[in-house]
Amino acid sequence: MVIAIKDVICIKGKMVTCGSRILEHFESPYDATVIQRLNRADGIIIGQTNMDEFAMGSSTENCAYGVVLNPIDETRVPGGSSGGSAVAVAAGMAWTALGSDTGGSIRQPAAFCGIVGLKPTYGRVSRYGLVAFASSFDQIGPFGGCVSDVARVLKVIAGHDPCDSTSAQVPVPDYVKSLTGDVSGLRIGLPKEYYTEALDREINDAIMKKVDVLRLHGAIVKEVSLPYTEYTIAAYYILTTAEASSNLARYDGARYGRRAKGAKDVIELYTRSRSEGFGDEVKRRIMLGTYVLSAGYYEAYYRKGQKVRRLIKEDFDKAFQDVDCLITPTSPTTAFKIGEKVDDPLTMYLSDIYTVSANLAGIPGISIPCGKDHQGLPIGLQILGKQFDEETILRVADFLESDER
Amino acid sequence: MKLNDPYEPVIGLEVHAQLLTESKAFCSCTTKFGNEPNTNVCPVCLGMPGVLPVLNKNVVEFVIRVGLAMKCNIAQRSIFARKNYFYPDLPKGYQISQYEEPICSGGYVEIDLDDHTRKKIGLTRIHMEEDAGKSIHDLDVDTLVDINRCGVPLIEIVSEPDISSPREAYLYLYKIRQIVTYLGICDGNMEEGSLRCDANVSVRRKGEKKFGTKTEVKNMNSFRYVERALEFEINRQIQLLEEAEEVVQETLLWDANQNIAYPMRSKEEAHDYRYFPEPDLVPVVVDEPWIDRVRATLPEHPTTRYDRFIAEYALPQYDADILTTEKSYADYFELVLKELHTKNKEQIKLVSNWVMTDVLRVVSEQKIDIKHFPISPTRLATMISLINDGTISGKIAKEVFEEMLKSSDDPRVIIEKKGLMQLSDQRVIEKVVTEVLDRNTAQVEKYLAGNEKVFGYFVGEVMKATKGKANPRIVNDILKKKFAHIQVSKG
Fold this sequence. Notes:
The structure holds two protein chains of two kinds. In chain A, 35% of the residues lie in helices and 14% in strands. Chain A contains twelve helices and ten strands. Chain B has three domains: 7-293, no CATH class; 298-418, no CATH class; 426-490, Arc Repressor Mutant, subunit A (Orthogonal Bundle). The termini of chain B are far apart. Chain A binds chain B through residues 8-10, 16, 18, 23, 26, 28-30, 32, 127-132, 134-136, 162-166, 242-243, 245-246, 248-252, 254-256, 266, 270, 290, 293-295, 298, 302, and chain B through 43, 46-55, 82, 84, 86, 88, 91-94, 143, 145, 272, 274-276, 279-282.
């Protein structure tokens, strides 16, 4: 198992920068739980991969250490924030890779690079040693060239960890065994709020073709509704930035990482170290998050965001009473040009529209290749499953993958 | 503040108690005090990137103990929150604390006022949190930070504004110290910072229902400072009101050297802590069986014990108060009683006297823990039983006691070795008495002439002749018998 690791997961004795200047020379004194588990399984860690700074971004352009190029078309982004990991697998530099997914950071780059990327259920994989962006959203997951590779890696890294109180005490099944190739009788939902006029025709058609194949093999396809979909992006950016503003407070130049030189007092030390150390996107999110938690705004933003999160989760609970999994596009577009959206954060945020709901609801999601658009760029198909039911989405993904071949 | 003042103070206290758990609240580092700086640390308490807290279950256990002892409601589900602020001794940039949904709410602490009435001070809440590290500024270099204390568990006990004087604040704090030390969850040491106290103070005209504007007083790191700082602040506020000026809501720091409280710079106190639920921890769930298990292990409450000492042993309030100051004192006292198997009120009072005056004197002089006091309850009981059975007199006992401090011998052995055995042999004493009377015919005449004070002189002479060993009761009896005899024979 030759595996690349996103530079947000701690490896003892290695530099862990999170794509940020502020952790320029930071060397981790410990191994993340997933690293320990990979080592125990004789995994070969071949390298660390570039990423959007602190996993904030959808294009792997927000990096202190250079922009990552899409191997299919080097003028285009690989998606993000785990762009480096997706590219490592897509370009054959590693057999598999680990990424982290807070709002689509594994699934969207997998889609843009034409590979498989899985975000497990929140609590399925230990976050100990994953540098936090938004603690109640972050989840480590694997990339692979095929579904069975992803299933193999998940088997190794999943399971309860006493070092992570939010990791669940749920048994880990043998995911490879769950790839039976049988989808007959499986109930598949298509959330109507995801298939609107706004969705690119080509992407829509490519997905519908796959849905037809499933139907042909005995799956029952239904339309379902997720009424709170229109609030997902807003709730996501309120809650994740709030957590991020607190999670990133520790990078203050006092103990490790970048320290501004010649500061007169502690306030100046903080201000300058952080001003020099963080990039624009990270600063933007810290400010947003600080704002939504501030006295006088907490109720209107953070608290309301939490309520919406609960409603979104209930949407999914309701939908999963009728279906076993959902099929959606992974991203509203295929890989866009480098620099195309970099000055327009709002458009960039909207490119996560289909992926963030899984993180709000804590459910698993997988992106698999689903044909190509007219420019030859890969289209991603996303399968969302019930909490802790990675088996079903892996099974459907594997089935569709065999069909693609 | 005078008794006829038209003003009354309204005080609420926030008390922080450092818990005596073996390891820190959210990692397995030791909580041991006094180790080399930055040695009791790990990636978790250093706030390294990617680490996660894991709650130490003993912290919950300890706070349940306090909650039960203070009659609080113990929440079945409570949550942690992050309190966000930047400071170099706060490695994560936030403190894990509880905000909404703390583990304990309600409850009260009873204090015994100087007029022997009892007053309930209501509690708002008790919650769990982690301590920060220490910044060391006063060295000749840059500020240094010691993270050893960082992550040591604390509880914060927040009172209602039920405290009406600095004296009451003192008694309240004293009672809290007593309860937490009885429970064994905190060492109660204010000077070392394991017990800390901030106060909210306001003043209003007597009879007024509305609260005045409050200030917060910090940095009062001893029981006496709390009383003095509050006196100062109350007087300052009254003076402002008298001069028709307004009290400004602000935070003051007590300066014990100058005996004043001065305002913190507004920048330092302008904190918006941006509390929000801690996403790295799951809710704390405490079920009834757990509470019941903890309840079963609770020691007797100090106030209950105080009341019982008065009711069961007929001790004066003064004795009961001193003997129950510390759980270890009360335990020592009761162990002595147990050894003596006595229900006799006089004998119990005798034990109380020995413990209060002799044992506790040495304990406080030598600043030792009573558990390490060289005379075990069993040995003291043996010694007291020797007084009771007349083997030694109370006076000789003091000598035996001093000897017992130095050697681990049984008091009987000491008495034997030193020849301190009380002389109770009638014939021997009678012989001495006769000799004394024969030598002092003039004094005998005086006594017979009605000067009864001379009686003490004879007792003294007999004791001198027996080197203090004669049983005074028998000496008295024989002397009286002798005089009666002489009178009759003179007839």
